Amino acid sequence: MGKRKTQRKNAAMLDNDDDNSSVSSSSTMRSDQMSVSGTEEVEFNKDSLLDEAVDALFEKRGSTREKSLAVIINAFNCNLQHQFLEKKFATLLHQCLNCIKKGSSKEISLASHAIGLLALTVGPGDNAHEILEESITPLSQAFKSGSESSKIASLVECLAIITFVGGNDAEETNKSMQIMWQLVHPKLGSNVITVKHSAAVIAAVVSAWSFLLTTMDGRKLSPKLWLESITYLSNMLDKDDRSVRIAAGEAVALIFEMGSLEKFVAEAKGSNDGSVLEGNKSKEGFSHIQGLKEKILNQVRDLSVEAGGKGSAKKDLNNQRNSFKDVLEFLENGYCPETSIKIGGDSLQTSAWSQLIQLNFLRRFLGGGFTKHMQENEFLQEVFGFTPKRRNLLGSEHISNSEKRMYRSPNSVLNKARTQQLNKQRMLSQGRNIGHFAVNAADEDS
């Protein structure tokens, strides 16, 4: 009898049109999950609330679906719902996709976030790849159904997360990056309708694009693509919005860290047929690239010491100065900013732009759930090379045999990320020794 009452109460919370009911239901879940575990009542309430939330995604009323999505997001932030997903993975994914296809902007934003959390929870493997394959078309179509900033930003973040976790190769990642790039830099044509996006959307797209770029091997990307992206990012450094400038600055630093622009300069300098830049001879192409590098260095230098204008928020100005001081130090001397944050009683450290971009993106996406995921999400722990002391004490006896095989597999996303990071660290070390990242035309001509 008590269980039926709990079910009715949960259903009522999800179907109530009062906005406060959403807060109430989320607060109820938080209090349930933070209570002392061990009682059947607490465990039942958690499972019951999630079951009711997923069932409510079938409802016709949009406000009901929105509130159920908020409950699901809160649940996946508070705990890694592995057992729940064993029975409800496919149902949750396809109902979230239905919300994206037919929902309001708010519902689309919530469903996008839920799908991203779903991917981070299941980790790399068949389920994550299924999320990517099933989601990419609905997400692409949703980009065209309106230009609301919050909706577009949520869709972009979702696409970045599901590609980061579920992408099996560079081709899939590159496809997602191209979808993002087309939002802010569409190729003009008779069938292309350009939409002027807000600064918030542009910053979100550049951040998501950079996040995925951290997983790519820059040596395999075309010089023409690099020139297009670095030129566009340089133009963005002159934009009025600070969030756009900071996102562009971090993307520029990442491209230099990957050594891709330096490779492009070498190719332009050594090309005999002038094919690197269409319509230009090799010497002209090299001069153009060198001039672009010098322009970027001057832009970064100016932004690192910019004075505050009328109405300028001091905090935003300081954030910009600090960010571009780090970029400038890297471009001139090859030193990456080193960061350290506390996760419980442990420290998570980064020493490369790729790591810092990944960390900042995932912290923004997970919000209050970041600490919980870093303490228990083994995929994210592998990405950052982070091992909580609690896990050190427990060892690996709680990891299933299939999970152990996944982490050991040389073809797994985790091992690819680990190998890529080691390669980047070696590249950085070499760069510091020979001044690889210093922008100095005289040195390169010699």
TrEMBL record:
Record domain Interferon-related developmental regulator C-terminal: where: 377-430
Sequence similarity: Belongs to the IFRD family.
Sequence segments annotated as region (Disordered): 1-40
InterPro entries tied to this protein: ARM-like, ARM-type_fold, IFRD, Interferon-rel_develop_reg_C, Interferon-rel_develop_reg_N
Protein name stated in the entry: Interferon-related developmental regulator 1-like isoform X1
Superkingdom, taxonomy of origin: Eukaryota
Gene name for this UniProt entry: LOC111312555
Domain Interferon-related developmental regulator N-terminal: 24-332
Pfam families (UniProt xref): IFRD, IFRD_C
Classification via PANTHER family: INTERFERON-RELATED DEVELOPMENTAL REGULATOR (PTHR12354), INTERFERON-RELATED DEVELOPMENTAL REGULATOR 1 (PTHR12354:SF1)
Compositional bias of kind Low complexity: 21-37
Gene3D superfamilies for this protein: Leucine-rich Repeat Variant (1.25.10.10)
